[in-house]
Amino acid sequence: MSPHAGIPSLKSTTSEMSISRKHILDLDDFTAEEIQLVLDNTVAMQEVISRSVRKVPALRGRTIVTLFHEPSTRTRVSFEQAGKILSADVINVSSSASSSKKGESLYNTALTIQSMQADIIVVRHPHSGSPNFLARHLDSSIINAGDGYHAHPSQALLDLYTIQSHFGDIKGRKVAIVGDIMYSRVARSNLWGLTKMGAPVVLCSPPTLIPPDFVNGFPKTHPFASVSITHNLSEAVKNADVIMALRLQAERQSRGRLPSLREYSRLYGINSETVKLAKEDVLIMHPGPINEGIEIDTEIAHGPHSAIQDQVTNGVAVRMALLYAVASANGGDK
């Protein structure tokens, strides 16, 4: 059976991407062409999701394990749903239910899972670099579902897909990323994706929530050379096509980087006055979960400009495309 079975309009060049896609760890080693290929194949996956019977045999016989050492709803459930729609066997393992509670290391846990013939391990972990470590030492394919402050590639790809679906293109679209840049793996992966796809990006946050290596901007030879940084929200969102608010990670704020949530909301919260400064058809985005009334007003989060629910929906199709690409890299159909 062809691995394309049941998936219409899937790009025949998927195998070209698959050659170098045994693992998906971040977008730093993706080319713009590879990113576009994932987005194009996501369109085909969306068509599958829209059917009355959402099931294709593309990954029949494959086993996917989601190994989550941090709480998650959107990412874990969407990977699970994506795998099941593609007919893979999907097993969920959380840290609370694994031997890590007994002191077992991440490596030994993953090694055990691999020994049970897992083809793909989807990993979320609080320590940056954990998926990269596993990719170096295991035979199973590794997909990074978020590691520390480092990366969240599938979130960035679904954000790119949401922008492309709304506007028809990404190149030249001004994107203002507002909020907790310091601790945001979403922001870092989006920087790689947006700059590779030709979108001008403005980062906006309090000075204390800008990473030290970002403070002085980026030299001309840096991949993020086109990215600008400001601490003024009005300046950041002026004529923006997209405003992407980030979750203020309150669990990190005990380190004293903000005087109060009220002050943060007053200076950096996305509200109706903020939206007026952007383009008339501005798209409002947020990776979730949202602290409504702090990062973004409720009326804006659920208003006509909001694509937040679209992001959640698009996440399933994007993760279907990623699972398919990784499985194709490892020999297609079993």
Overview in brief:
The chain is 37% helix and 13% strand. It has helices at 14-18, 32-49, 74-85, 106-115, 130-137, 153-167, 185-196, 233-237, 261-268, 272-277, 298-301, 308-329, and strands at 63-68, 89-94, 120-125, 141-147, 175-178, 201-204, 228-230, 242-245, 283-285. The protein has twelve helices and nine strands.
Features:
globular, 5-stranded parallel β-sheet, alpha/beta, 334 residues, Rossmann fold, single chain, 4-stranded parallel β-sheet
Overview of the structural elements:
It is a single chain. This protein is of the alpha/beta class. The chain folds into two domains: 14-151 and 313-329, Rossmann fold (3-Layer(aba) Sandwich), CATH 3.40.50; 153-311, Aspartate/ornithine carbamoyltransferase (Rossmann fold). The chain contains twelve helices and nine strands. Strand 1 (63-68), helix 3 and strand 2 form a beta-alpha-beta unit. The longest helix has 22 residues, at 308-329. The radius of gyration is 20 Å and the shape is globular.
Radius of gyration: 20 Å
| Unreliable spans | 12-19
Largest sheet: 5 strands, parallel
Oligomeric category: single chain
What is the molecular shape? globular
Q: Widest sheet: strand order?
A: 7-6-5-8-9
Fraction of residues in H or I helices: 25-40%
Order of helices and strands: HHEHEHEHEHEHEEHEHHEHH
CATH architecture identity of the largest domain: 3-Layer(aba) Sandwich
- CATH class descriptor of the largest domain: Alpha Beta
**At the fourth CATH level, what is the homologous superfamily of the largest domain?**
Aspartate/ornithine carbamoyltransferase
Number of E-type strands: 9
